[in-house]
Amino acid sequence: MAKQPPHRDPAQDAPHVAPPAHAAAGLPAIGHTLRMAAEQMSPGRVLATLRRVNQPDGFDCPGCAWPEPDKPHLAEFCENGAKAVAEEATERRITPAFFAEHPVAALAERSGYWLGQQGRLTTPMLLDEGATHYAPIGWDEAFALIAEELTALDSPDGAAFYTSGRTSNEAAFAYQLFARKLGTNNLPDCSNMCHESSGSALTETLGVGKGSVSLKDLYQADLIIVAGQNPGTNHPRMLSALERAKRAGARIVSVNPLPEAGLERFKNPQTPRGLVGGGTRLTDLFLQIRLGGDLALFRALNHLLLTTPGAVDEAFVAEHCAGYAEFAADAAELDRAAVLRATGLPWEQIEQLHGLVLGAQKVIVCWAMGLTQHKHAVPTIREVVNFLLLRGNVGRPGAGVCPVRGHSNVQGDRTMGIFERPSAAFLDALGREFAFEPPRAHGHDTVDTIRAMRDGRVKVFFAMGGNFVAASPDTDATEAAVRRCRLTVHVSTKLNRSHVVTGARALILPTLGRTDRDVTAAGPQFVSVEDSMGMVHSSRGGLRPPAPGLLSEVAIVTRLARAVLGPQDPTPWEEFALDYDRIRERIARVVPGFDDYNARVRRPGGFALPHAPRDTRTFPTATGKANFTVNPLTAPEVPAGRLLLQTLRSHDQYNTTVYGLDDRYRGITGGRRVVLVNPADAAELGLADGQFVDLVSEWTDGSERRAPRFRVVHYPVARGGAAAYYPETNVLVPLDSTADVSNTPTSKSVVVRFEPAA
Ligand code: SF4
């Protein structure tokens, strides 16, 4: 039987600090995996559950979106995947008795870690207006209540429908259809806060807002540049792919303000070398760049390529690209001093990278939040594309763009239409298929939804999964905005902060997880997801659901739609709920690339979605070509006596879900309120290792935000920067501090000062 949840909420500001690790995974990963799984499940359940993760007849890991290899290993999961699965498959339960015992005000005093450890939600719960406790409510009553609030709105745009990346393709398609039939495009999603900058830059330059490489491409690459990403914690099975590429002769360059163990050495627990040997050294060249210096680095690289005879693939550029002349004219000159200031790198290292690029025919650039969460994120990613286009590294094996998605189906949700700025072509197809005129006015993304709640323009907030309040920037402003709502509704598996920061009325609708069996009157159902490389495959849970009467995401959306849109709405919501093949048939007629969906998704491993730049070197852009762009060199400006803070995850965390209080690769255990500062910067700022400080962010409008009591840890971060975990430091990220074009919060770029803690 699983261990009881922690009764006491452990202190989080007294961590133990040791030197950081220099290798990821290995035997310790197996130990931690089994220990954390055993906290949540009995041994038999641990084995029964973990053996089905990422298997053709099993379920998709609810963690990140890393793809499965053609032939999955017996244990095709990483330590953090196992933690995500264990947290969902836990035997701990939250019953109405729990809510009767805990008033919401008391739950709001608890940490996210403690809330998440209480177990799976089992019963629909209502926090009525003026009530102090959640109380049980029937499903039909819950849907009727939501219908009452939605129909009371002056306009459908008075509601917002948020999606977290765990939502399946089938539920996401039905959800966006419901929202659009209601009359709104207010469909913010977690992608707005993570890879929106990638989508914006890639759509403009290549015509497709997704990565263009497959796992096979990674194995064939000559050079892999990993920029602004920490795969050892956030996409751990990527290390296996990097190891395989390395063994095939690839060179690996990591560009990161922090020396991450997972990029240094990988001890693959699937191999003797990884279990008892020294593992595999991954990175050949580590560029410890200043926060936000990536645009300057790629501008310098492109300048060097342009000024190196024979380095440019002239034939590819002439045939497939537009805008080259303007780009080349602008990049012919380079302010080297500005590059050195912005990157903090010695010029020799940039030349070293240039040398590696010249020696490589097939180059892939992988990236994550370290590039996407800056004000100049979109120009940075455009410059990465310039770099790849110069030598024709798009649309051929072993080469291309690889934004690595952080949530298991965040890419699939977007493909299904979860987007506040849908294309006219998508709305036309949707309208044709369901015989209605979808709303055309663009809706609110995440940041705009918070503004709309703050300003009283959005009064009903509905979330399909996730932890909106904790994941969003500017925590105090976000919480105040949410509290202005008439109604907040969360479809969830576990308890989190968003359940205790509510509108006047609040509903918790407990749903099935990926690990749970989903059986309707038509028989067992499966869902499907799309991974970071555009592979669509099925996911079948096998565990008995945590409680009878729990509804799947699809059942919740379709019953809600019927309750709100009424019996006169011709959409066959009931058929959709009964048999998900009916949903997939519609998807096949609305979304390009899903023809014969039901047959192809049943194949082991599923199928690849088309990607014109990868498949045929055709670029569905405004010019019909791959677009070179001009991106003036810029980098964050940091006033004297301040540092630039980046928020990041610990190793015991997945997005805002905290599995434990350790970050063992960085040598930190038993606590989370730490701030990592370079010893030289600390000396200049008079910050002693172990000293407690308040972090105060300073925004351009003069406003300030405070995060109290963090322990200073002298750590080898790049000069001028600091690092601390979110969600604890999301309070420091101003709501209006967003990336140009994508409106993504600049969570990797927050100017802070340090004050002695009270
Ligand atoms: S790499 Fe990502 S998808 Fe794969 S098991 Fe780990 S967390 Fe899950």
From TrEMBL:
A Pfam short name: Molydop_binding
Superkingdom assignment: Bacteria
Annotated keywords: 4Fe-4S, Iron, Iron-sulfur, Metal-binding, Molybdenum, Oxidoreductase
Stretches with biased composition (Basic and acidic residues): 1-11
UniProt xrefs under InterPro entries: Asp_de-COase-like_dom_sf (IPR009010), MopB_CT_YdeP (IPR037951), MoPterin_dinucl-bd_dom (IPR006657), Mopterin_OxRdtase (IPR006656), Mopterin_OxRdtse_a_bac (IPR010046), Prok_molybdopt-oxidoreductase (IPR050123), YdeP_MopB (IPR041953)
Molybdopterin oxidoreductase domain residues: 120-490
Ranges of biased composition (kind: Low complexity): 12-22
Family classification: Belongs to the prokaryotic molybdopterin-containing oxidoreductase family.
NCBIfam families cross-referenced by the UniProt entry: Fdhalpha-like (TIGR01701)
Name of the featured protein: Formate dehydrogenase
Organism: Kitasatospora phosalacinea
Species classification: Bacteria, Bacillati, Actinomycetota, Actinomycetes, Kitasatosporales
